[in-house]
Amino acid sequence: MNRSIKLLIGVVIFGLAAYPSTGRPPKKNLTPASALAELKAGNARHVHHRRQHPHESTARQKELTSGQHPHAEVLSCADSRVPPEIIFDQGLGDLFVVRVAGNVATEAELASLEYGAHHLHIPLLVVVGHESCGAVTAALEGGPAEGHISTLVQLLRPAVEKSRQLPGDPLSNAVRTNVEMVVQQLRTSTPILSELVAHGKLKIIGAVYSLRTGTVTWLPEINR
Fold this sequence. Notes:
This protein is of the alpha/beta class. It is 46% helix and 12% strand.
């Protein structure tokens, strides 16, 4: 990683830390299990069109000026059809979201996720892929990619290659394999995320979203 990227990440972390993360105290009973249960309940409401649209009031907006205590952080694709706050029926201050095409984790994404887990004490990190992902499709089809898209495709190709021998739909297999590989990358990322996982302070899991049904399928924990 060159000096300019390191400097940029350092500036971002410093800037984030300069803002208060305290104020309204976090829920005392917040655990990885309770955070996951909230996301599952929210997705069920989304699927059955019973969304509550929580925490969207003016009072909530004002409350958050003194600090934030999200109960989960999400690394998801930048695809406009997969907004985490909607598919999990969450509101202002509920989720700490990092979005990038293909839900990959480079140094910049890692820096943001480390901040959420370490400084905001978020107990749950979810990597969300989705069916018909354009970025994964580009990596699967191969061929030249324009501009910086080629960098993204290179990041996704290991998952494509690993999934080639699996039975079933190649794109679905690649999407799922990519999520699994990113989860493992994050769970073993030093020095922050792996340490939090080892001490039971952070749970990292994967999921795949269906564009057709709105359902989030939770992947089993791997290489625990």
